[in-house]
Amino acid sequence: MKFLVVDDSRAVQTIIKRILANTGYRDIELRVASTGEEAVALLESWTPNLVLTDWHMPGMTGLELLQAIRQRVGADIHVGFVTTESSARNIEAAYRNGAAFVVTKPFVQETLQQAVLTVLQDGASAEQAIESSGRESLPIPTRFNPDPQRIRQLLGLSSIVCQIEPMAPIPVDRLALPYVIGIYGHPQSKALEAVCLLDLNAACILGGALAGLSPAAIHAAIASATLSREIYENATAFLADLSGMISAGKGGAPLVLSTSHLVQKPFEKLYSLWRQNNGRADFSLSFPGLGDGFIAFLLS
């Protein structure tokens, strides 16, 4: 994972570098620049996954740097602001020019860490993924059989003890953010066929347990609503393992997990699917000593 930190304060550079090192990503390549001009020169021969920039610096401003990146590189590089700038007009201009986030100084570590992880976990594209994945007409309808016993056996392979019970569908107004969704489709098609949703507790407990994290670390993730790389990637692996329960008709080929997303803000397309779908199953999950959560399967 590649990061570029652009700030004329070495102290702030050090703080941001330390926070990035704690996101859980291995093989981090991190470079720094003190001005926008230095950053532009670096970007001519190196492409980071995320640029974190101040707003007020000698010479080029952070907004001008963002505009230069969009003009020269395009939208492939995520850019976030870590700044004392608090003007609503300027912050709106940052988002209008494609900023991924704006974190205002002074900030607590969890705020910046969550902003960074949300970008890296592709949360911003969840709405786009569902909006653009139209349902195709298939000769064989998609079916699913999310059996609690099969889920329990799947978790048992990793020595995770979990009580799973069918539950009544949770109303959309009780769907608390953030949560993790998996989007499933056929290998030869980009069409959305099914969605699986893990609430925050379930995602943190499942992802944390599969990653071998301590109960204290899992509880801290839930309390801060922050999914580290380890938690998120292991929760995604669990969603991928569930694909065998969703197939194209009786005896049909299983669907595959197309993408997963950490969803931080509501969007109507998912809520519409939550209210009206072609099949649904909800289960409560209870993990001794860790807490409770839920999982929901939806057919589009």
Automatic annotation (TrEMBL):
GO terms for biological process: phosphorelay signal transduction system. It comes from the Bacteria. The modification 4-aspartylphosphate is found at D54. Keywords: Phosphoprotein, Two-component regulatory system. SMART domains: REC. Residues 2-120 form the Response regulatory domain. InterPro entries: Bact_response_regulator (IPR050595), CheY-like_superfamily (IPR011006), Sig_transdc_resp-reg_receiver (IPR001789). This is Response regulatory domain-containing protein. It comes from Pseudomonas oryzihabitans.
